[in-house]
Amino acid sequence: MRLIVNGASHEVAAPDHERLLTTLRDRLHLTGTKLVCGRGECGACTVLLDGAPAYACLTLTAACHGREVSTIEGLAQDGELHPVQQAFIDHDALQCGFCTPGQILAAVGLLDRQPHPSEDDVRRGMSGNLCRCGTYPKIVRAVLAAAEGGAGNG
């Protein structure tokens, strides 16, 4: 099957039952997408599928044939961090960093759908992504700052 990952086309031979998370990590060696719960409860494996946040641990690779998959590795362009990535750094919105790729992709998806969210919109929009370190206030500030800087495509 053909996957378009971070703008590049990949021919992948994966069994019908293989999850996108496994394909990204083990076949394409894109390890920014993290396996934590494997049940769609934590959001650490969040990727963008045709621009919308999706849990890679619950998504079958076969369901992604011909679709656009974006991972954390594909956000930076020409050596420049994506505005959401930069906002997470600027606002110290990470501690251990394990949930950060999924948090950032969820934020990018949110801002693409809703370029000018309120604080409550950010909390609701990011509610599917858990942070064991509890940096939620900083994450919200980072997403709002990225929105102020025009991080969304909308």
CATH topology of the largest domain: Ubiquitin-like (UB roll)
Number of folding domains?
A: 2
Relative helix content = 25-40%
What's the oligomerization state? single chain
What class would the helix/strand composition place it in? Answer: alpha+beta
CATH class (first level) name of the largest domain = Alpha Beta
Residues in β-strands, percent: 5-15%
Rg calculated over all Cα atoms: 15 Å
CATH superfamily of the largest domain: Beta-grasp domain
How many individual helices? Answer: 5
Largest sheet: 5 strands, mixed
Give average pLDDT, whole number. 94
Order of helices and strands: EEHEEEHHHH
Low-confidence stretches: none
- Number of E strands: 5
Distance between the termini: 31 Å
Shape-level CATH architecture of the largest domain: Roll
Physical arrangement of strands within the biggest beta sheet: 2-1-5-3-4
> What's the shape?
globular
Description of the structure:
The chain has 154 residues and is an alpha+beta fold. The chain folds into 2 domains: 2-71, Ubiquitin-like (UB roll), CATH 3.10.20.30; 83-148, [2Fe-2S]-binding domain (DNA polymerase, domain 1, Orthogonal Bundle), CATH 1.10.150. Helices cover 32% and strands 12% of the residues. It has 5 helices and 5 strands, in the order E-E-H-E-E-E-H-H-H-H. A 5-stranded mixed beta sheet has the order 2-1-5-3-4, covered by helices on one side. Strand 1 (2-5) and strand 2 (8-11) form a beta hairpin. Helix 2 (83-90) crosses helix 5 (136-148). The longest helix has 14 residues, at 100-113. It is globular, with a radius of gyration of 15 Å. The mean pLDDT is 94.
